[in-house]
Amino acid sequence: MPHRAAHPIRAILDRLYFASGMLAAACLLALLVIVVLQMSARWVGTTFPGSTAYAGYCMAAASYFAMAYALNHGAHIRVNLLLSRLGRFRRGGEIWCFGIGAALSCYFSFYAYKAVYWSRKLNDISQDQDATPLWIPQLPMAIGMTILSLALLDHLVRLLFFGLTDIGDESVQDHHTE
Amino acid sequence: MEHFALTGIFLFVLFLLLGSGVWVGLALLGVAFVGMELFTNRPAGDAMITTIWTASSGWSLTALPLFIWMGEILYRTRLSADMFRGLAPWMAPLPGRLLHTNIVGCTIFAAVSGSSAATLTTVGKMSIPELRKRGYPEHMIIGTLTGAATLGLMIPPSLTLIVYGVTINESISKLFIAGILPGLVLSALFMGYVAFWSFTRPHEVPPPEPPMSFGRKIHEARFLIPVLLLVAFVIGSMYLGLATATEAASFGVIGALVLAASQRSLNRKTFVESLLGATRTSCMIALILAGAAFLSLSMGFTGLPRALAGWIASMDLSPVVLIVALTLFYIVIGMFLDGISSVVLTMAVVEPMIRQVGIDVIWFGIFIVVVVEMAQITPPIGFNLFVMQGMTKHEIGYVARTAIPMFLLMVVMVGILVAFPEIATYLPDNMRSRPG
Question: Cα(B128)–Cα(B392) distance, rounded to whole angstroms?
């Protein structure tokens, strides 16, 4: 696409996606540290109460913070068979996908915030040994999905007004999912 | 009748969203939402968040990002070059010679990575040019590699098995251990095929390598041995009940980091790249799992799984007939969806069915992986075909044709699994497992 680097909003958004991706990576690192601590605690004969719950929270935070970042890298998979054959209707197909995607993602985000709000209001506590107030680990889910919604809307707007998006065509070499 | 129409709408939305290219995770979310709105008065959104939160923060799933990371680290080391150099001298005396490096290389890399695309690129990067240089026929190089790379899905750590285990709430360590023998049997079948080729078409086999002394062979393999030890340690710790799958995965990550550091391929850049790569991949699987968790909740309200299980029961099918039917079903699904998506999409419906006819769920996990592996090498969406096309610039049709013998061997593998289910169930039945 014609690069409109001049616009400050562009730079802010891109930085936001990237920053939340980095935050996600930090959460993954934290997950490793927690698991290692848990094992070390067992070897020296003590326990790390609630470690499995904390590990789960870190994983969830890593997953959701990375949503938009993964989207921009073309990491989220989709069935490309029809889209790639649409030819000149491709743009229409993409608008449909980003539209539906953005709507679902916004829906998800809304209820994620609602869950955080009610967890906090009702003082919902984890049933595990960690006894964490649940709204804290649930917040990353809400924030991450919001950033994903923002990214999907961002792409949708660019598709509608500039006609293109810059999501890399999934370079197959980088796909380590299968 | 009205219920029938609603089910029709539900399935139509499923095909529409998935087929039109909406990201799989979000598409499943959308279908589930439609299902909830059609079949129940429950508030969809709140039920969705509760289900998804439980699915995304569960302890058993934490093995997934760690195993992905372990593979990402080793993928960025010199393993590719070491693999070929280390294996070639040992494979040279076998009938079919160095072609076996493709298969054994894939088997070993499959044991450090749960991904067949990573397996294919790592092994192929070195073995394709080396084998070409020595004059091995192109169709054998491409075919064996494309087929053997699917072992990445079966030999632990296997991402598909983690996802399957989390979906049906079964022990991941058990599933991993169950995958070992079938993985080795399949790899032996592939090697047998290479030997068979060398006997039937001796004129295609290039001249032998110069002989090498035993000490020299060990010397060439010196970089490979630590990798084998790491694999043995990770899998062994699960088998002996010393560690849960997640803990074994964290051993794996640390071991991989140490290996990479000792090879001097670990620096700030490769560390960050491996971490980010793992973050992206686990995020994409997390989105699919989130959608799938909501979908299986919604699926329950549609009554589809119960109806199908009842229908299967009323037909009084033998398990073998059901397995044949499911094999065909998964091959067709696999033509359009990747392995993980096809597992999560179908398990809500298939699980009651297999429990109904009394099929062991651990065994079924291995079965489903073999079938999903087949889908990796069948057009139009076979993932390994794309990766191979990217690497060699051959047309997808050509790659698919070279892999046909491997595909048939996998069909044989399904037969072996049905005839001798112990291959999958013996080890998990005899392991010491650790709760959690």
Answer: 9
pLDDT level of residue A175 (50, 70, 90 thresholds):
very low
Is the confidence at residue A75, as pLDDT, over 80? yes
Residue linked to tokens 């590990």: A55
Contact between chains at B282 and A111 (C-beta distance less than 8 A): no
Residues of B in contact with A176 (CB under 8 A): 68, 71-72, 75, 113, 115, 117-118, 277, 281
Judged by phi (left if over 0) then psi (alpha if -120 to 50, else beta), residue A131 lies in: left
From the list A39, A59, A67, the residue facing B65 with the nearest CB is A59
Name the 3-class secondary structure at B95. coil
Q: Which of residues 8-47 of A touch B (CB under 8 A)?
A: 21, 24-25, 28-29, 31-32, 35-36, 38-39
Cα B94 from Cα B100, distance rounded (Å): 8
| pLDDT, tens digit (0-9, with 9 covering 90-100), for B28-74 | 999 999 999 888 888 888 999 999 999 899 888 898 899 989 988 98
For residue A58, which residues of chain B lie inside 8 Å, CB to CB? 62
Q: Which of residues 98-137 of A touch B (CB under 8 A)?
A: 100-101, 104-105, 107-108, 110-112, 114-115, 137
Nearest chain B Cα distance for residue A154, angstroms: 16
| Interchain CB contact of A60 with B (< 8 Å) | yes
pTM summary value: 0.88
Give the count of beta carbons closer than 10 Å to the beta carbon of residue B306: 13
Query: Tokens 């609602």 map to which residue?
Result: A114
In eight-state DSSP terms, residue B113 is -
Q: Does the pLDDT value for residue B343 go beyond 50?
A: yes
Nearest by CB: B284 against A29, A77, A138: A77
Determine whether B258 is exposed, middle or buried from the number of CB atoms within 10 Å of its CB (0-12, 13-18, 19+). Answer: middle
What length is written for chain A?
Answer: 178
Confidence at A165, pLDDT banded by 50, 70, 90: low
